[in-house]
Amino acid sequence: MHPLLFLSLCWLQLPFAAWASPLFNQTNIQHPHLGDYTHSHESIEKPTYTCVSLGQCDICTPLEKKTASYCFQYGNKEPVRCEWDDPNWYTNRSDPLDDDDVILLPTFRPCPWVQRIEQLKILKFESINLAVAVCSLLVFLWRHRKLSREKYQQLVQRIGA
Asked: Residue span of the signal peptide, if any (predicted)?
């Protein structure tokens, strides 16, 4: 199809497509028996807590990588001890908590890297660089001796000794 014909057909159908397609209804129609739950979570004040690291970052197990939320981001976990910022928050609550409603403080948090693995990566990188440097030095010395030997042979042939 010719490009100009194609563009003209698209241009002609554009206003029709806008007229024919239903627009997103932006009016807020609420059912009389249902409440507005869209922003209900904003009015609940969440208790805050602070966590202190208890140890080094470690790799999550394969099961934890699939099930634990702290392993989703990096695949690593760091043990932590968390405490409520307001120690009386749990006891001052007016509504009783069931076993299902209890808010558990985290015991682990995600961490971006494991120190011992990063140290092994650095050691591996440095050892590969050292091996390449040693190989390069050996090739340089061998080539230098070979060229020196060839220059000496050329000198011996010129002198005729």
From this structure: 1-20
